[in-house]
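note to self: dont lose this again. the chain is below, predicted strucutre after it. 318 aa total, dont forget to put it in the shared folder this time
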Amino acid sequence: MVKQKRGIAMPFNWMFAIIAGIVILFLAIYGTAKFIETSEYRVSTETAAKLATLIEPMGTGLASGKSDQINFKKDARTYYGCSDLGVFGKNTIAFAEKTFGNKFGEKGGEINTKKYVFAESVIEGKQLNLFSKSFEMPFKVADIIVISGGDYCFYQEPNEIEDEVLGLGIKNINFSEDLGACAGIKVCFGSNLGCDISVYGMCEDYNCESLYDYGKVFRRSDVLYYTDSLLYAAIVSSPEIYECNLRRLMKRFNELSLIYIDKIKIIELKGCSSNIEADLREMMVLAKGLETSEDLFLISQKAEVVDAKNQGAVCRIY
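---
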C-alpha cells in the first residue's frame, strides 16, 4: 500500500510543478507585456508634451510667418484633435511610434494646447513640416499653426501665393507647370481636373489684393471656405479640425473686440472718437452665430468695412 501511495504522489508532484511553472511563466509574460505597454504609453505621452512645447514659440511676432521641421528617428504617428468648448477651446496632440515587429506602439495620452493647430487628424511619417501665419480679421486675432507630413504640389497658383510659400521657406510645398509631373498631393488653383484638392478664389471687388484673398477649397466631398491665411489651413486640415478651430478663432475675435470697444470708450473721454464700434458689434453677432466656414463670407466683408473706417480715422483703434 505504501508503494502505491508513492507511485501516485510522484506524478502529482510533477503535475503541480508543471502547472506552477506555467502560471509563473504566464504571469512573467503578462507582467512584461504590461510593463512594455506602460512604458510605451509614458514615452509617447512625454513625446507629445515635447511636441506641444516645440509648437509654443511658433508665433509670428513681427514677421509675416515662420516655418520649421521636426524629424523623428522612427516612423511615427501624430494625432490631432480640437474642441471649441469653453472660452477659447483647445487643440490636442498625441503620439505613437513603430516598435517591435514594425508595428505602431500604443498611442500616448493627449496633451492640450491653446494654440490654433491645423492638421490632418493623423499624420504618419518621420517628418513634420510646420509654419505659422498671422490671422487677421481685420486686426490680428491669433497666430495659426499649420502642420503637414507629406508633399504638396501647387498647380496654376497665383504669383503672390508662390512668393509667399517661397518666402516662408516651406519645404514640402513645390510647384509645377505640368500637372502630370506633380509630386505629392495635387493642389490646383481655379481647376479640378485631375486634382486632389481644388482652390477657387472669390474676391473680385476693388479692395482685393488678390482673387484668392478669400474663397473656397474642395477636398473630396468637403467644401471649406477661407479668408486670409486660412487658405493654407483649409488645404492641409481635416474638415472637422478646420471648422472647430474656426469657431475657436471667432470666440477669440469676440473677446478681443470687447477690449477694442473699451479702448474706443477711453479715447472718447479724451476727445477723440471712433466710428467702428457699431460695425464691430455687428461682426461680433455674426462671429457668435458662425456654425460652419460658409458663414465666414459675411464676416470677412464686414471686416473690410471696419478696416477701411479705422484706417481713415484720426484716432485709430488698432
